[in-house]
Design a protein that fits this description.
Length: 160
């Protein structure tokens, strides 16, 4: 009898730990998307915590130093590392993305200090939410300048 209570208590504790790990992982999960993927999903991703990657269009960068509001547009860049390498590497892919007017584009708004690496043809990797207005509101903004970093875009995580 004593042993049965001990085993049941241990199983309940184990189940609680597994549940806590699973629920916290799902709550903090962020998926990497490209501009094309977010555009295709439309309203189903509005308001969700997302990670987005794209090529910065240099002539769209606007910064208000009083409000620390930064806005710019990004163009679609493939998330497939093999495709990027086949097209000549990240620097070439970013160059092609910003110079191709047929690529999907998305406006980004970020509040914070203007990053030094923000310029045309940089790769922006952002965490934030898509608004009902189609604007991506970034909470975090990371930039990779292709001349400084020759790494590919982040691995894509399949969405649900």
């Amino acid at each position: 009898m004593q042993r049965t209570k001990f085993i049941l208590g241990g199983l309940l504790i184990l189940a609680a730990v597994v549940y806590l790990i699973a629920s916290s992982t799902q709550a903090s999960a962020q998926y990497f998307y490209t501009v094309d993927e977010i555009t295709a999903k439309g309203d189903s991703v509005v308001g969700k915590n997302l990670r987005l990657s794209g090529a910065v269009l240099g002539d769209t960068i606007q910064y208000d130093a009083d409000t620390l509001t930064l806005s710019f547009d990004i163009a679609h860049v493939s998330g497939d590392n093999n495709e990027i390498e086949a097209q000549g590497g990240l620097a070439e892919v970013l160059y092609q993305a910003v110079n191709d007017p047929s690529r999907q584009r998305m406006k980004v708004v970020y509040v914070g200090p203007k990053p030094d690496l923000l310029r045309g043809e940089a790769q922006a990797i952002m965490t934030g939410t898509l608004g009902n207005d189609g604007v991506f509101y970034a909470d975090e903004l990371l930039l990779k300048c292709p001349t400084k970093y020759e790494q590919a875009v982040p691995e894509q995580v399949s969405s649900k």
